[in-house]
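For reference, the entry.
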Amino acid sequence: MSEFANDFLHRFELERAGVRGVFVRLSDSWNQVRERADYPSVLADLLGRTLAASALFTGNIKFDGALSIQIKNAGPVGLLFAECGSDGRLRGLARWTGDIADEAALLGATPAPLLAITIDNRDSGQRYQGLVPVEDAQLSTLFERYFERSEQLPTRVLLACGDGRCAGLMLQRLPGSVHADDDADAWNRVGHLLASARDTELLALAPETLLYRLFHEESVRLHASKPLRFGCSCSRERVAGMLHSLGRAEGEAAVREDGMVEVTCEFCNTHYRFDRVDLEQVFRGAGDMAAAPIRH
């Protein structure tokens, strides 16, 4: 765990209340995402919290694939995207134009943008996507509404970003829990306790300390941590597929004076170079693109 000590996911239970939870904190991975572009501070904060949420939401599902969160056309922000794989690899980016005054200008944009949460499951080959309109200027509230509408699962979410870190804490009421049925006030009680957490606590306290401070009367059971890290799923094969989908005319139009086409991954800044022979193989659907060099 030492290599990823700053980036981790913990699952836990509040056994007395019949509630499960996930806690995530990112540092190294978040800084690698943030350094890819000169994001305005408001947008960087929003992207950091969304990245933490993408990891947070993988905590209570079993799958082999990736979960992504995407918001499009939120005022001056054309795209905000964050993704976490089941293997703990994270990536994210945002595209914007002009100035960004505050977060309300993004999440309160008119017409209202959509929040999409997508799960790609490699095992089954299935793709699940849930959509909710962005009707509130609070990101945590949007995510809570998503779980209520799409999963019919009472959920509370806290997100924080600052001092080179981002973090998230999520509670979900366990369906059919004997403890929760015997204690009608349990869900409201833990919700009030969660609301008392400060951003500085989410960003700095050890998980054991944070959860004990918040829920020490709820019989906290903390599971082993899962390491998280920055990682991109781009590949030469995927880039070749993208060029093929554009078509021969557009692909050849991108050829530079030196006879090369260069594509740069927006997530990790890896450069993929294709010469005219490579392009011919791409559009014929033949050849092994993996053998060609990649420049970082």
Notes: Residues 41-56 form the longest helix (16 residues). The CA atoms of residues 199 and 226 lie 22 Å apart. The chain has two domains: 2-230, 236-295. The mean pLDDT is 87.
